[in-house]
Amino acid sequence: MANNNPSPRPMPTVKGIIADLDGVVYRGSEAIEGAVESFEAWHERCIPYCFVTNNSTRTPAEVCDKLHKLGVATVPEHIVTSANGTAALMASRWPSGSRAYVIGSTALADAIQAVGFELCEEQADCVVVGLDPAFDYVKMSKAVRLILGGAVFMGTNPDLLLPSEGGFLPGNGAVLASIAAACRTEPEIIGKPEPFLIERAITALGVPREQTIMIGDQIATDIAAGQRAGVYSVLVQTGVPEEHHSPIKPDLTVSNLADLII
Ligand SMILES: [Mg+2]
After folding, report:
1. Helix extents (H) in the chain
2. Does the domain formed by 93-189 have CATH 3.40.50.1000?
3. In the chain, N or C: fewer CB atoms in 10 Å?
């Protein structure tokens, strides 16, 4: 176990675990070494865990299936995605029957419809943008016109790059930036590094935040979101390379989940 924090705070007695998925539990379709065994051990010790992902393209049930196939016990209620987080935030802000123009996956559109929104391409109360491989100039034009007309601009997550087997792909943040440049309006972001998804996970776990840890492989999103939510943060170095110059310091750094002793 290595800790690069010059004045580390002690880890609390852990009553709940929040964990990122990509780069922590799996990489593509492969489980990361040590991850499945760690969650198995925590499950046996009855330490509840909740997964939080900026990926808006899969439903919690789909993520749950993937985790089951890898050997991780969980339930859809313990999977917080930026898609269902966005839908929940919208439902708290607008009355049922409000109108949304949605760019993104079926999972995102379904989550927004499920909380009472009408999907539309004009007279929208808000424009919601999640990762959409079919994003094009026509969709961009609709979003820009609606935002210029007063619709609220929201983004599921700000990730600029996505690692893939063939190299990096542009992430949702890059699409958001193109719309923001045209409108001169910044989107409201729901995913990490904002703390909203972490807050939902704390609620789902039902444990005190002082006794909750956030495990992630990215300082700029996972660790930042954990710290904003006031939970103890653990960086695991099995995902993207560490950002050595970040001003944000995790409470603890481990090379592998098997090294995380709680
Ligand atoms: Mg990750």
Report:
1. 35-44, 60-70, 82-93, 106-114, 137-148, 172-183, 196-205, 224-228
2. yes
3. N
Taking phi first (over 0 means left), then psi (-120 to 50 degrees means alpha), and beta for anything else, what does residue 142 get?
Answer: alpha
Confirm whether 16-54+192-259 and 93-189 share one CATH topology. Answer: yes
| Cα 118 to averaged position of ligand 1 atoms, centre (Å) | 32
- pLDDT tens-digit readout, 9-56: 899 999 999 999 999 999 888 999 999 999 999 999 999 999 999 999
Q: What's the gap in Å between 216 CA and the centre of ligand 1?
A: 6
Distance between Cα 22 and ligand 1 center (Å): 4
Calculate how far, in angstroms, residue 116's C-alpha sits from the geometric centre of ligand 1: 31
Q: Report the distance separating Cα 68 and Cα 126, nearest Å.
A: 35
Residue 22: active-site member: yes
Q: Write down the pTM of the prediction.
A: 0.93
Q: What ranges do the domains of the chain cover?
A: 16-54+192-259, 93-189
Task: Give pLDDT tens digits for 123-163.
Answer: 999 999 999 999 999 999 999 999 999 999 999 999 999 87
Sequence-distant (6+) residues with CB within 8 A of 5 are: 249, 250, 251, 252, 253
Task: Tell me whether residue 20 is one of the annotated catalytic residues.
Answer: yes
Across the chain, which distance is largest between two alpha carbons, in Å? 54
